[in-house]
Amino acid sequence: MNRDGTERILVVDDEPMVREVVVAYLEREGFRVDEAGNGAAALKQIEASHPDLVVLDVMLPELDGFSVLTELRRTGDIPVILLTARTEETDRVLGLELGADDYVVKPFSPRELVARVRSVLRRSALATAEPEILEFDGLTIDEQAREVFVTGKAVEVTPKEFDLVAFLAHSPRRVFSRGQLLEQVWDSSADWQDPSTVTVHVRRLRRKLEKDPDNPRWITTVWGVGYRFEP
Predict the structure, then answer these.
(1) How many structural domains comprise the chain?
(2) Burial tier of 191 (Cβ tally within 10 Å: 0-12, 13-18, 19+)
(3) Cα dihedral sign, 73-86-162-29
(4) Residue 91 lies in domain
(5) Is there a single domain that holds both residue 14 and residue 86?
(6) Max Cα separation, the chain?
């Protein structure tokens, strides 16, 4: 974020016309916007300007968007929205598995993209109004530090994984559908975002938190309904 409080966005796409339209809409909404035309330039720009969010095209020459995203997740948790012309579910799931916060399929409405940017930025805010330390049998969720511990050992989670487990833990044994979790945690809906987003994040959390991810202790599945947190 800039000194004046303006949030900074990096738009990465090899099509100048796409960049021009997206930049124009974001700037009109008050964002400070930088742009890059390929993956290597994007990584250099990120290192130089430290944007608050990256809008990243998947189909980039040489260094593609998945490779850029992988590199970003090695070094930090900057929010990323993928732009993709691919409609296959496997490609969308791959982006989420690599740590993308959201994705938009081309062709897209620039107004929808701006709304997604605002939504992801809200969701990725580090502070909560009343941070708490939630403690269960072997699991600790520190909302102020945004850290998770299992039997006293810190577990690395992405911002969205933290938001999801903290939200569920605030309502033990209450069942939430994937649609409800999209609305409450992602500030989105099934009209905008595939419910598989929730499934992927639950699977990733189980791998990190559970002794046996196939028989989870904390985040359980209620078949035909959704998920709940077991205290």
Answers:
(1) 2
(2) exposed
(3) positive
(4) 8-123
(5) yes
(6) 54
Q: What is the DSSP letter of 146?
A: T
For residue 134, give the DSSP letter.
E
Question: What tokens appear for 44 in the block?
Answer: 């250099």
| SS3 of residue 101 by DSSP | coil
- Find the CATH number of the domain harbouring 204: 1.10.10.10
**pLDDT tens-digit readout, 55-101:** 999 999 889 999 999 999 988 889 999 998 776 677 778 888 888 98
The separation between CA 224 and the C-alpha centre of its own chain, rounded to angstroms, equals: 25
The partner residues of 33 in beta bridges, in order of sequence, read 9
CA 47 – CA 154 distance, rounded (Å): 27
pTM equals 0.60
